[in-house]
Design goal:
- Helices cover 8% and strands 37% of the residues.
- The chain is mainly beta and 423 residues long.
- It has three helices and 28 strands.
- The strands form four sheets. Strands 1, 2, 3, 4, 5, 6, 7, 8 and 9 form a nine-stranded mixed beta sheet that branches. Strands 17, 19, 20, 22, 25, 26 and 28 form a seven-stranded antiparallel beta sheet that branches. The chain has a five-stranded mixed barrel with strand order 11-12-13-15-14.
């Protein structure tokens, strides 16, 4: 009986251990290395083929992530950098890569291309194309200035600008618009009034934070937006900075472009009137004129040559009252603008000999249209940036917005928050 009990006990132990689950170990990622390319060589390859190229061979690129998706300002995209070259990764799925990750990118199945001027590697699957080499390998930003930044060589790089500040028109505003979840552009200035766009997503978790009001340093990714893919044609573009988080702005110094003097001229249309404050409209051709529009609680000046059924030939001016700039040192004009539909661009003009009434074409006008930043369409609001009026420091100056429409087309233009202030 004793031997039988021992045998039963042994059988129970064997049964117990034989039923215990053996957990599988996680698979070890073992992607081929293949031929190794640098980011510089990868971009040069795209230029050489002249079109998008999907890799079917075993190639790899080593780089370090300079952004991630944690702040919401980047979504399903990460910028990576190696030395002085950077590229944007477009991810198949969100997540999995973090700023400071040192990685090997297995290129098979990904596509190298240029989109709106930015080199990007599309179709990157973090599970199938990325092998992390290390974490916490933070890239030091390169020091740049607004006037020396190179749109071709610096695109995608992590950079820092020193001694800059957001323009006066952005004071009290938020980084972006979380309500409409639309992107918003603000401008940073150096002390010589050179400007650069800072673009922030409406999905950023800091979209509702107030823009810093002081002077300091700003760190972010250099982005460009253009319809051109040939670097030789990168003369028509928006040069932009994308910040990683609010800590990217270290503004603790005294401003250098704001005098604290109240605006010399200000027009915001909040009273529902186009002509209040001495403003006038001059309808040179056509029957349609400037009105006040309203959307989402915002009032603005509005001009369209569409009469409800067709476009009309139209020329209409919105002109300021006479402005005395004789006591100003560095006056600057700024305004917000938005438009949609095909048609002529809105013009912004300055005159020192307009009579104050009648046909404005009889006066001499200087165009500042080319120096302003303009909406890219779809009623996206953009601030013009400061337009330096230092060459008009005299009495009797007029500012005008000139609208042209044809019988075949015509844009709808909206303007708001027109200001002339001492910088």
């Amino acid at each position: 009986m004793k031997n039988l009990n021992i045998l039963l006990a042994i059988g129970i132990l064997i049964s117990t251990f034989s039923c215990r689950k053996e957990y599988d170990s996680p698979p070890v990622q073992n992607l081929p290395v293949g031929n190794i390319l640098t980011i510089e060589e990868l971009k040069a390859f795209r230029d050489s083929v002249g079109a998008a190229y999907t890799f079917t061979e075993d190639y790899s690129v080593y780089a370090t992530a300079t952004t991630d998706e944690s702040s919401g300002n980047f979504y399903k995209e990460v910028y990576v950098q190696a030395g002085n070259h950077a590229i944007q990764l477009r991810l198949v799925n969100s997540g999995g890569l973090y700023e400071g990750d040192s990685i090997r990118i297995y290129l098979k199945g990904t596509t190298i291309d240029i989109y709106r001027g930015m080199f990007q590697l599309d179709g990157v699957d973090v599970d199938n194309n990325i092998i992390k080499q290390a974490t916490g390998k933070h890239v030091a930003p390169a020091l740049r200035t607004i006037t020396t930044i190179n749109p071709d060589a610096d695109r995608g790089l992590l950079v820092t600008f020193e001694d800059v500040e957001f323009e006066q028109a952005s004071m009290g505003a938020t980084w972006s618009n979380s309500v409409t979840q639309s992107d918003v552009n603000h401008n940073i200035l150096n002390c010589n009034l050179n400007s650069l766009i800072v673009r922030t997503s409406g999905y950023a978790n800091f979209a509702d934070d107030i823009i810093p009001s002081l002077n300091g340093s700003l760190t972010g990714i250099v982005g460009i937006y253009t319809t051109e893919t040939n670097p030789a044609l990168f003369t028509t573009l928006d040069l932009q900075i994308y910040v990683r988080d609010p800590e990217s702005a270290d503004f603790t110094n005294t401003r250098c472009t704001s005098s604290g003097i109240p605006p010399i001229l200000e027009k915001n249309f909040n009273d529902g009137s186009v002509t209040s404050g001495g403003w006038t409209t001059q309808l040179v051709i056509g029957t349609l004129n400037w009105t006040v529009g309203e959307f989402g609680g915002q009032s603005y000046g509005n001009m369209s040559n569409y009469n409800g059924s067709t476009n009309e030939i139209n020329e209409s001016w919105l002109i300021s009252p006479s402005i005395d700039l004789s006591g100003a040192t560095t006056p600057a004009l700024s305004f917000n603008n938005a438009y949609s539909y095909t048609g002529n661009a809105l013009e912004v003009l300055i005159s020192a000999d307009y009579s104050g009434n009648g046909d404005p074409n009889l006066a001499t006008w200087t165009s500042f249209t080319g120096g302003a930043l303009w909406s890219s369409g779809f009623f996206e609001w953009v601030n013009s940036g400061p337009l330096n009026l230092s060459s008009f420091t005299q009495n009797g100056v007029y500012v005008a917005f000139k609208y042209i429409g044809s019988a075949s087309d015509g844009s709808t233009w909206e303007i708001d928050d027109i200001k002339i202030e001492e910088l």
